[in-house]
Sequence to fold (134 residues):
Amino acid sequence: MRLASAVMFVRELDRSVLFYKELLGFDVTVRNNSAALLVGGDGGELYLREIGACAEHPLGPVGIQYLIWTAEDEEELRRCERVLRAQSPHVTSQTIDRFRMVEGRGPDDVPIVVTYPGPEQVPRHEIIPRIYGW
Fold:
């Protein structure tokens, strides 16, 4: 079993589509005036739905807090880090349990985490400390 799709509410659809296309390398396959579907080469999907500029983004007490993406290789991880740094100067990079984790923020201040190698290449043996930081 694998995660097939993620749904993200965003303030500005155009801005978010551009950012996530560049960061993830996904293609826009369907789009209307309030939503877009981006699809990756492996079939993974990211739905973006515009909810307006005044929408709040609290990290509520339950539910999904953020997603962790896995780069295909080290070069792609470096590319993702450059995209995140262009978006915000507050980007961190660390090595945990033999994998590298880069964290930044998306256009709506949503946490973005990208790792390499993925868990199928380097199984995780500890809980990453970052999940306790929210």
Summary: The chain has a mean pLDDT of 87. Helices lie at 13-24, 74-87. The beta strands are 5-10, 27-31, 35-39, 45-50, 68-70, 92-96, 99-105, 111-116. The radius of gyration is 15 Å.
